[in-house]
């Protein structure tokens, strides 16, 4: 590497480290990939293509042509998104039913894979997803308000949590709650 200069992100280094640990890449292959002759490499190119020096070091193959520079989330290394099982846009409704303080709706979040999170919300575009009647927020609020209408009173916290737990099971959402603060 003498005389060479390379600029990489911490995310790229972590991704390469994980690929080596998993046995997908070998240390000599990584060494060859970063041995850039002739200057600086910018890993954050607008097109997303690999820098030419890295492409040259890895060779020309369909796998290499399919590679692109990405961020931590694109590499599958970011934290899984937190999903509020009690919809945030109805925070006031839940507060009226006792979800305050230690029982705040932010205490009822679960970590989901990005694809699962998008799927229960009707896809990657939340505005379009909200038009789907089985989108999580629409479905859960419909179930809760319909039950309230049937019993003729506000539901208790436990009744709400029992209804939500049943829907979580249907949607294959784990019952491992985590705090959603700072999301």
Strand residue content: under 5%
Measured distance between first and last alpha carbons:
40 Å
Q: Helical stretch count?
A: 9
Average pLDDT score: 76
- Order of strands in the sheet with most strands: 1-2
How many DSSP-defined strands? 2
**Rg calculated over all Cα atoms:** 24 Å
Major beta sheet summary: 2 strands, antiparallel
User: What is the succession of H and E elements?
Assistant: HHHHEHEHHHH
Low-confidence stretches: 1-6, 36-47
Which word captures the global form? elongated
As for the number of domains, it is 2
Helix content: 40-55%
Helix/sheet category = mainly alpha
Question: How would you explain this protein's 3D organization?
Answer:
The protein is mainly α and about 180 residues long. The chain folds into two domains: about 10-65, no CATH class; about 80-170, no CATH class. The protein contains nine helices and two strands, in the order ααααβαβαααα. It has a two-stranded antiparallel ribbon with strand order 1-2. Mean pLDDT is about 75; it is low at about 1-5 and about 35-45.
């Amino acid at each position: 590497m003498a005389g060479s200069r390379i600029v990489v992100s911490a995310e790229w280094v972590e991704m390469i480290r994980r690929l080596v640990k998993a046995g997908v890449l070998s240390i000599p292959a990584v060494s060859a990939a970063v041995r850039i002759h002739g200057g600086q490499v910018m890993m954050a190119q607008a097109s997303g293509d690999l820098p030419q020096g890295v492409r040259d070091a890895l060779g020309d193959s369909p796998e290499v042509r399919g590679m692109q520079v990405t961020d931590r989330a694109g590499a599958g290394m970011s934290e899984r998104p937190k999903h509020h099982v009690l919809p945030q846009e109805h925070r006031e409704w839940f507060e009226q039913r006792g979800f305050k303080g230690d029982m705040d709706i932010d205490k009822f979040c679960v970590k989901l894979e990005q694809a699962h999170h998008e799927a229960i919300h009707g896809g990657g575009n939340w505005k379009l997803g909200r038009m789907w009647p089985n989108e999580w927020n629409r479905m859960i609020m419909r179930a809760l308000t319909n039950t309230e209408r049937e019993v003729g009173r506000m539901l208790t916290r436990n009744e709400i949590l029992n209804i939500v737990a049943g829907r979580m099971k249907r949607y294959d959402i784990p019952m491992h709650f985590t705090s959603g603060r700072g999301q």
